[in-house]
Amino acid sequence: MLPLRLALIVSALSPGVVLAAELNLQPPVTSVARSIYDLHTLLLYITVAIVVIVFSVMFYAIIRHRKSAGRSAKQFHENTTVEIIWTAIPLLILVGMAWPATQAILAQKSTRGEDMTVKVTGYQWKWQYDYLDDGVAFMSHLTTPRDGTLKTAGGPYLLEVDEPLVVPTGKKVRLLLTANDVIHSWWVPALGVKQDAIPGYVRDTWFKVDKPGVYRGQCAELCGKDHGFMPIVVDARSPEDYQQWLAAKKVAAAAKAEDPNKVWTLPELMARGEKVYLQNCVACHMANGAGVPGTFPALAGSKIATTDKPGHIDMVLNGSKKNAAMAAWGKQLSDTEIAAVISYERNAWGNNTGDAVQPKDIKAARGGKV
Amino acid sequence: MNIADGTQVASHIQHDKPRGLARWLFATNHKDIGTLYLWFSFAMFISGGVMALGIRAELFSPGLQFWQPELFNQLTTLHGLVMVFGAIMPAFTGLANWMLPLMIGAPDMAFARMNNWSFWLLPPAALLLMISFWVPGGAAAAGWTLYAPLSTQGGMGTDLTIFAIHILGVSSIMGAINIVVTVLNLRAPGMTLMKMPMFAWASLITAYLIIAVMPVLAGVVTMVLTDRHFGTHFFNAAGGGDPVMYQHIFWFFGHPEVYIMALPAFGIVSQVIPTFARKPLFGYTSMVYATSSIAILSFMVWAHHMFTTGMPATAQLFFMYATMLIAVPTGVKVFNWVATMWEGAMTFETPMLFAIGFVMLFTIGGLSGVILSVAAVDIQLQDTYYVVAHFHYVLVAGALFSLFSAVYYWFPKMTGKMYSEKLGQLHFWWSLVWFNITFFPMHFLGLAGMPRRIPDYALQFTDFNAIASVGAFMFGFGQLIFFYNMVRSIRHGQPAPQKPWEGANTLEWAIATPAPYHSFVVAPQLEVGDNGVILEMKGGEHH
Amino acid sequence: MRDNRILLKKLLLIACLMFGFAWALIPMYRVICEVTGINRVVKADAAPAAGSSIAPGVPVKLVFDANVQAGLPWQVKPLVRSMMARTGEFVRVDYEITNASNRRVVGQAIPRYLPAAAGPYVHKLDCFCFKEQAFAPGETRRFPVVFVVSRELPAELSELTLAYTVFDVPGKVAS
User: Fold this and answer.
1) What are the transmembrane regions (chain B) (predicted)?
2) Which of A11, B72, B219, B263 is the most exposed place for a label (fewest CB within 10 A)?
């Protein structure tokens, strides 16, 4: 087992990309990130200089002023002048540091004059992006398979998502951040943006990407079990490409409103439902439907997933009244997706009820309204 | 005066050492209680260390090898809580218990029975923390900071943790009251405040910090508890609460807490360096003022832990400037220690090695702190491994190295035996090398963008994580050298002279080795120089 | 011995009084909240005197948004995403709320401002956030929000975002 794993690691390391940029901040692509980068470099030089000076004095003393070198100790223990000097000098250095730091902070905080606004909502454990000006909204999930094999779905391990946040270059993008459950933090190092998303509150931040590219980050605030598995991918495209993407996205959104009266077969529902389950439910209820004992209830063999069908639909649609961790999925998923995932849950892992829940059942359960 | 009289009467009645279990269970002697504290904190250090190795084992390579993410989060949470409240704080209280009365000429701690209680609260609290791993839902997993509303989600383990924090808090507050009263009321004649050892000053100021902030922590975790079970909405926006308020209250405790773990270390180093440089501490008065100003400033900087919560620019600027200001008194301390070494006649026994290691690594940790204090840069580094590296430089190389220094320094006085110098030096060099191999690469990980508290990571972080994991295991094994050295030396060590260190000149070295069970039953008349240097001692009586 | 007994009695009496006081706090808090209105989450502001009679103030950019917290099966959206207005004039924006579930749900909206410092300058005259709103299954309603941005608004706050967060009112779900 171990040699296999080592072999895997070695093979993973072999591309040169992996070793690049491991020592310093990621190459900045926004003015804010650049100011952070430069500020950090400046601070690094100053602190290294301080370390060199203080340590050389100390090591000089350690080497020369030792008993074994035949020294006897001088008994001085005060020198007001020296003490005033070494209080004043650090103070001046700090004032020198504070000036550029203040400039950088004021720039970071200036969210005005945006070209577009995207609302970012943190969920356990995924991100939702709402393009407020264009009415496009989607969830962004990790796509790396979670079976511990270090395989990816075609992107960097753990830093790949199904739907990246696509933004135009050269435009000031304002983010409005909030969260649905606990505090998350939206962080993309290359953009120089890290902002907590706080449930029940709204915060904002901004960035303006200079050059097209894909920039990756992660949730930075511990948000529970899968905190390490909710990456952020920002795909910056030229304004023209962005407009194309946006148009395609709007068409796709219209198409997504599938015919709610279509009757699906059980295998169709199962296939679709498994996909929905793996995107939304697997984090808590686990791939085998067994849940996490004591924290997240099992679905395999559970009463609600084998007998109480209306209760099951209600639970998925409206969430649990007893356990806040079970969200109301009616807001996030379409009728078809909910019908599919319920059918999947009622027929997977030995829950062979044979129930095929149809989108129109869900529509009825919603009370005829979306 | 009443207190001192009372203690004297008690000690006259009880001449003999009690034997067996009762000696420890009903201990009222400051030396016995100090010993209990030190062994307890060592046990906690080992438990917290095992958790750390669990974390590092998982992070040795990408992928999930050993733990599921929820258990990983429990390990990081409990590692932090156990190390902070179980290992470092009790160790400093234990040292203060053992050495303070000896250093200021007091017969015992002021409240001997409360002292017993403040120790014996610790084991049940530790037990609550440990058994929480086995309750349904597992231990608390919201990080040692227990941020709401994540901490309002957890299982029963979170409740156990909250109760444990309550108990640990009560214990710390009682210990702190004892230290304050002892230092202020029980100093021997001649041992004035501006002459007493820096260690006494540091313990006194730390004790004030503890009394000021532990109730804040107890309050905020109680609010989490009532949010969890009694329908309050302190941190739930749906009921008019504010999750960020948790962070404000927590860090109002949390930042002074950092200095609760650092100031006693400053005190220890300020005793050890003069002894082995054979020279008085440079700038004693400025040291006292620097320590006090650090303590005061520590109440004004809490929100620098929260720069990413989206504070207004003015608040960020205020907390940035205040935080940078702390670098000034801290710098003064480092310069004073270097000036104490300057033109001295240094020897490098184990305590001195650890003290020098402390000054070096604490300086590095302090300077990475200055970088973090700059809010603009902190936006990029908050919640990354850079922060992990920073606070381990301050707490492992800072607090822990100073504790090792102290234990080696006072070991002869406590036990009457000499530790093995060879093993001590091996322990130092081993710890120094592997500490840096473990924690230095974490700076790079943080800069490159690795968040903290994640059980699995992107492949570009593999190399440094592997190095850090190897370093952590080697560092961990190195602590067995320390354990072996202590146990073997207590049993078979060479008898120690009354003053094993040529340059030692504070009060504890003016009495017999090992320290008599009841020391300074009658207070001596002292003539004292700066930093507790004893110029002349008359009288004093021991049993 | 007698002293001890008297002391014990006194201590017991004090303990009883403390307990009684704590018990009496429950109705006392209720009365205090009713009299002072502390418990009302959002209150209506008084209309500023002579709102539109004098010359219009400086232009302000307004952005509107709304969020719904977990557990509340509502959809809330402003009908206008952003607009330009002037300080001192009445602004009206409509919000549409839909209860997307098949049960009666009670919600409470709380206004949030970005930047937060702009909050005190927004005087709300009419708002669905003044009280809890009950929705029948599937019901959709529109609410006007009417407010005035104070003329005292500092220049650096001249772009402001009003984002409601709508919460489930605990214990009022059924019925």
Assistant:
1) 36-57, 77-98, 119-142, 162-186, 198-225, 245-269, 281-303, 315-339, 351-377, 389-411, 423-444, 464-484
2) A11
